[in-house]
Specification:
Blueprint: E1 2-3, H1 8-19, E2 27-28, H2 35-43, E3 50-53, E4 56-59, H3 65-76
Parallel strand pairs: 1-2
Antiparallel strand pairs: 3-4
Length: 77
């Protein structure tokens, strides 16, 4: 998951994943600015958080738990 420390939606997404026991690797774009290129290539712009799984991406922008859960289920299917 691509995140940034200042991103409230990122914190919400990480909390959701942790609560559900779903492991993830975090890539902080402030620590690894080159990661922004991956996000932009996949989403067309820098959007956080962005989750990548097996080459597929979802975005938790304006975090909505119901939509995030739905998108995550589709991503992991």
């Amino acid at each position: 998951m691509y995140t940034a420390a200042w991103c409230g939606d990122c914190r919400a997404a990480k909390r959701y994943l942790a609560d559900k026991g779903i492991p993830f690797n975090e890539i902080d774009i402030e620590v690894h600015p080159e990661a922004v290129k991956t996000i932009v290539a996949a989403r067309g712009k820098r959007v956080l958080p962005t989750l990548e799984y097996k080459g597929k991406f979802i975005v938790g922008n304006h975090f909505n738990v119901e939509q995030f859960a739905k998108d995550l289920a589709e991503l992991l299917a």
